[in-house]
Amino acid sequence: MSALVQKFLRLTVPLLVILLVLLMLLTLLLIRLLLLMLLLMLLLMLLLMMPMLLLMLLMLLLLLLLLMLRRQGVPLLLTGLNNMRS
Is residue 83 part of a domain? Predict the structure, then answer.
């Protein structure tokens, strides 16, 4: 009886080890795939949001330009309108 059990264990233990290694490899692959999917999703989001971001950046640059011109004393349209009102 014990010889049969030993034979069974001798056959099954390597199989179990191989299965465990395969499972570990599969989980690593799945994690990598999930990370890749997340990265792709982020890239897609950036591509979709890019026009909005570019518009916001352009607006900020225009505001900075206006402020710089105003610092140098260049009469701008807005200040001219304000002067006309008062």
Answer: no
3-state secondary structure 51-74: HHHHHHHHHHHHHHHHHHHHHCCC
pLDDT in tens, 35-76: 999 999 999 888 888 888 888 899 999 999 888 887 776 666
Residue 84, both tokens? 């006309």
**Of the candidates 79, 81, 56, the residue with the CA atom closest to the CA atom of residue 67:** 79
Specify the pTM.
0.43
How many residues belong to the chain?
Answer: 86
Domain that holds residue 53: 3-72
